[in-house]
């Protein structure tokens, strides 16, 4: 039985991504692995949502057979949120790759790139009719 699913995004440099999630979206660093004066790995958490970043250099050491594949990215994440307007305010300055839209399946969405070039779509669903 699946208990939890946590994406791991591979990046050239973790620090800008960690800063984006902590400073703009309110996540907390719960673990980090240093590699010299840089980070090799970080876990970011907010509520029951968890996200991990691992550097390419760390992947080279940790899992050489998969390291080349990790560089092929980018990753695409679909993130359901309670309030899209709050997210839009928090992500100011990020590169918008999909302007806000309303979908046929009832979601307001906006798509951006994180500092490493991964694609994030934030979506707010309309409340169910009563």
Query: Topology as H/E string?
Result: EHEEEHHEHEEE
Proportion in helices: 10-25%
Count up the helices. 4
Major sheet summary line? 4 strands, mixed
What's the CATH H-level superfamily name of the largest domain? 2,3-Dihydroxybiphenyl 1,2-Dioxygenase, domain 1
Count of folded domains: 2
With strands numbered from the N-terminus, the spatial order across the biggest sheet is: 1-4-3-2
**Given the C-alpha coordinates, what overall shape results?**
elongated
The end-to-end span amounts to 33 Å
The percent range for strand residues is 35-45%
Alpha-beta classification: alpha/beta
Structure notes:
With 130 residues, this protein is an alpha/beta fold. The protein folds into two domains: 1-72, 2,3-Dihydroxybiphenyl 1,2-Dioxygenase, domain 1 (Roll), CATH 3.10.180; 74-130, Signal recognition particle alu RNA binding heterodimer, srp9/1 (2-Layer Sandwich). Helices cover 24% and strands 42% of the residues. It contains four helices and eight strands. The strands form two sheets. A four-stranded mixed β-sheet has the order 1-4-3-2. Strand 3 and strand 4 (49-55) form a beta hairpin. Helix 2 (56-62) runs antiparallel to helix 3. The mean pLDDT is 95.
């Amino acid at each position: 039985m699946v208990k939890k699913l946590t994406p791991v995004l591979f990046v050239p440099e973790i620090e800008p991504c960690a800063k984006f999630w902590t400073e703009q979206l309110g996540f907390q660093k719960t673990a980090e692995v240093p590699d010299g004066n840089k980070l090799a790995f970080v876990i970011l958490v907010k509520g029951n949502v968890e996200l991990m970043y691992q550097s390419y250099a760390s992947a080279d050491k940790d899992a050489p057979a998969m390291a080349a594949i990790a560089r092929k990215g980018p990753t695409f994440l679909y993130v359901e949120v309670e309030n899209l307007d709050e997210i839009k305010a928090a992500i100011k300055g990020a590169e918008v790759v999909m302007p806000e839209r309303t979908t046929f399946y009832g979601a307001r969405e906006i798509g951006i790139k994180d500092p490493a070039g991964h694609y994030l779509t934030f979506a707010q669903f309309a409340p169910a009719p009563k």
